[in-house]
From TrEMBL:
Domain of life where this protein originates: Bacteria
Catalytic activity: (S)-malate + NAD(+) = oxaloacetate + NADH + H(+)
Organism per entry: Agrococcus versicolor
Protein name: Malate dehydrogenase
UniProt keyword NAD, yes or no: yes
Record key words, sorted: NAD, Oxidoreductase, Tricarboxylic acid cycle
Gene: mdh
Gene3D superfamilies: Lactate dehydrogenase/glycoside hydrolase, family 4, C-terminal, NAD(P)-binding Rossmann-like Domain
Binding annotation for NAD(+): G9, A10, A11, G12, A13, I14, G15, N103, Q110, T127, G128, N129
Binding residue positions for substrate: R90, R96, N129, R160
Amino acid sequence: MVTSVAITGAAGAIGYALAFRIASGALLGPDEQVRLRLLELPSAMGALEGVAMELEDCAFGTLAGVDLADDARVAFDGVSHALLVGARPRGPGMERGDLLAANGAIFRDQGAALEAVAADDVRITVTGNPANTNALVAAHHAPSIPRSRISALTRLDHNRAVARLAAKVGAGVADVRRMTIWGNHSATQVPDVAHALVGGRPAPDLVDAAWIADDLVPTVAQRGAAIIAARGASSAASAASATIDHARTWVHGTAEGDWTSMAVVSDGSYGVPEGLVSSFPVTVVDGEWRIVPGLAIDDVVRARIDASIAELVDEREQVRALGLL
Ligand code: NAI
């Protein structure tokens, strides 16, 4: 069987890191065949041809084919995974509202295209920013796709928090379980270690509240900016890796006793208004995610979540005012 996977913005920095790993089996595994459906703007089709040439030259045994398109309805035809990475970056003088407008229109059109032509089992992952609200817009324009099949990426934030906590306590990343990111993929995101375990021990027994407030939360939330400052370009390989982790976990599930973080359509859990696309701790079994129920949340984390949710509500108002919802 061949599974079709769409990548938008495939000639961009994240797309370039993503396509080769998926082609080599990182998403579906070494025994599955993948057909890549790469979408770009007409102006980037030349660069995309180059990506396709390199994919061919890798001679991956897991790659059944590569299709290039500058039309979403062509690229998304029959796809089981839609990795929506391509987005308009914030340019000089652009306000956040301008960014929401430019990207809202892109994700409106891509949502409608997915609604029209994607496979029945399609899973949609939005990486392009502002990811949560782009996913909200796409979902609105794809009414027949189940809400449970639409998500935005906070796995990079999750992975960053796992790595930071592991380094702090001198453990391996594989020893860290039950990390949580709440809210928006933005500077207001809420990394939360209250329920995390390191080697089976509760993280709050290993790190103090000051380290969480003064180091973990700001470092994870500002990591994207720190990488731009250091590299002169935004995180690409790590964002691609997290996009694969997210989509792979969605198919293959979370490990027993662990969970992951995904931005999904809220059912009202934890006081997040129904319908907002917000990050939650989720378990995944048989391809279906479920928000981890009943976690105790202290006042400090509650206030951070409320601030991030207020930002998501504001973004929703802005795209609504633009006629995108
Ligand atoms: P990039 O600018 O290198 O590549 C974006 C590509 O998307 C370009 O090749 C562009 O031609 C294409 N594109 C733009 N509009 C398109 C459309 N309507 N259809 C198809 N392709 C389109 O940017 P990069 O570094 O690859 O980042 C992509 C997005 O991912 C950005 O929005 C960035 O902010 C976001 N990002 C998200 C992260 C997350 O954790 N959720 C982490 C890092 C980046």
